[in-house]
Amino acid sequence: MPAFRRDPAAPKSRHRLHRLAGGAVRRLPAPRLVVLLVAVAAILALTPYLLVPLYRFIDPVSTPMLWRYATGARVERVVVPLSHIAPALRLAVIVAEDGSFCRNHGIDLGAIREAMQQSDENIGESRGASTITQQTAKNLFLWPGRSFVRKALEFPLALWLNLMLPKRRILEIYLNTAEWGPDGEFGVEAGARWAFGKSARELNAYQAAELAAILPNPVARSARNPSPIVRRLAGVYERRASDYGGLDACVRSP
Fold first, then answer.
1. CATH 3.40.930.10 for the 59-251 domain, yes or no
2. CB of 218 closer than 8 Å to CB of 185
3. For 196-238, how does the pLDDT look when each residue is reduced to its tens digit (9 = 90+)?
4. In the chain, which stretches have pLDDT less than 70?
């Protein structure tokens, strides 16, 4: 019976195959990691769009609130329905922040063009081109500060908010998530109590205008101890609210 003879090339072949297979195994995690990162990014990008329809019924929190919760900072917030907020305040905020709120679809291209054409001396007092819907999108899902990346994310979110939620609900969410004081006062009820010691439903037209005047920076501006610029802007907004009382027609009670 002939003796069994091992092919001398066989071990080398098996070694070569093992080496190739091992190299393939070592390279597999990289594509998997890329797929995982893409999947995570897609989930993060889509989550706001999935959450927005739920906000018809659920009162959301803002990203600044979440950050303060995470860092142990103070958060004072009392959620109130729009019907428990003084009509003068609703109108003052629309006058100050987004005069086309009832007409636009979440963004205002005309306001964007005007903001880009503003002279340097007016920039300090300007409100920029963000609509109330854009600011709501930023408060709920994005971060403060100015950047092209944030704006690029903000635009489609604002359009989606406007598509999925009625104007009345968008304003209600905005008033309950915006920052209204220097020490974690979120929502207009907490802001009214801090500034005037009364509920948001009890504010008169001038107090409402003062609160609207601090919205660009409630840490630097105060309705409790109003500076000359806050007083001047409050007077402007009170007069405009009187002259253009129909700007809040879309958020009035049916």
1. no
2. yes
3. 999 999 999 999 999 999 998 999 999 999 999 999 999 999 9
4. 1-29, 111-128, 254
